[in-house]
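seq:
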Amino acid sequence: MRGWDAARVAREAGARLGEPARRRSDGPPGPGRAVVDSRAAGPGDLFVGLRGERADGGRFAPQAIADGAWGALVDPSAADGAREAAVAAGAALLVADDPLGALQRLATAWRRELGCPVVGITGSTGKTSTKDILRGMLDPHLRVVATDENLNTDIGLPLTILGAPAGSEALVLEMAMRGRRQIAELAAIAEPDVGVVVNVGPVHLELLGSLEAIAETKAELIRDLPAHGTAIVPADEPLLASHRRDDIRTVTFGPGGDVDELPEGLDLPFGSAHMRRNALAALAAARAIGVEPRGAVRVALSRLRGERLALADGIVIVNDCYNANPMSMRAALDDLAETAPARRVAVLGDMLELGPSQLGHHEQLGRQARAAGVGLLVTVGPLAAHAAEAFGSGSQAVPDAATAARLVDRLLEPRDTVLVKGSRGVGLEVVAEALLAARGEGQWARS
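struct:
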């Protein structure tokens, strides 16, 4: 948006320009990005005041402007409070009845201005890793902007788009889902050319009720692709079969699919089966926008998603505690079985939002851990305790992450590989942080 003046920004957002900005002589006329946290606002930023459950972000607009923000987008109730600061600083004040909707409209306008290919990625598990791999594949060839951390919602996705500089040559956008129509909302903002559905699994069953409903919601991405678009789907997922379209190109990946193996000479920094499957989806997406990845691919996995931390005595922590569901737990245990050189230790927390079948899923988790050769299982939370019961001898169930951290620290042996994974609400990052603090400064290993 750097080349847009305040009037253009307001028009594209569907907002009213409450206070025309005096053009500054020390920078470009338009904002470089949008932010919703006033503490992060600085020179060149458009601060968007969103109304939350506990506070109206618009009331922080004066401080954001005082800190140098290019301007503020607020609702009418916050406009009077921000006007004096905007006039004093020569900042722009934009007023909209629905600031979030205005933010989203502005993102769509900027996506169209960029005119570059957009890849949308969703899935029950592995969408973040697939996004990270695709960014690594594209980086040597194109100027790429991809979703950072968890900016994959109706707020985070437009912030990602608006942070893309002019001249960006590809956008890789992760799309999260918790209910019906949410993927459709994100697709309407991003207008992707390529839609990737990594998989369909038992995630958010409590909200959606069935795997068929989850597939239907994920398939909103396929449904809303333009006529020139490309859908990328697993070859072995029958739940998506009825959602395919005849008027767009469909590329399948995985065993028996259109993209079923990685080309010779493509060097990826991991060897686990589920990560290589994610890489097939990423490869299909790269090809869909005209890129053929070659050579070594540098992949920086997002925080708390399969990070490997090497400690003293050859101990490695696999810090994969951003979230968990039956599908991702199984993949993580398979990876532990494939990569651990000695004893396999698993610290597994509750898997949330699984609905009436939650106890059965946790019992199955315990049996999977036993089949994966886990030598020590520590479960965290009341649901995960059922996994410990199903696992049997060699397991211990504890109520919270802090207790797990103390217990695991006492039980670790040299050369152990420790998988730490659970739903976000369990807060298992405490375990990895405590082990790092107790055992000295570690180093991040290759993922």
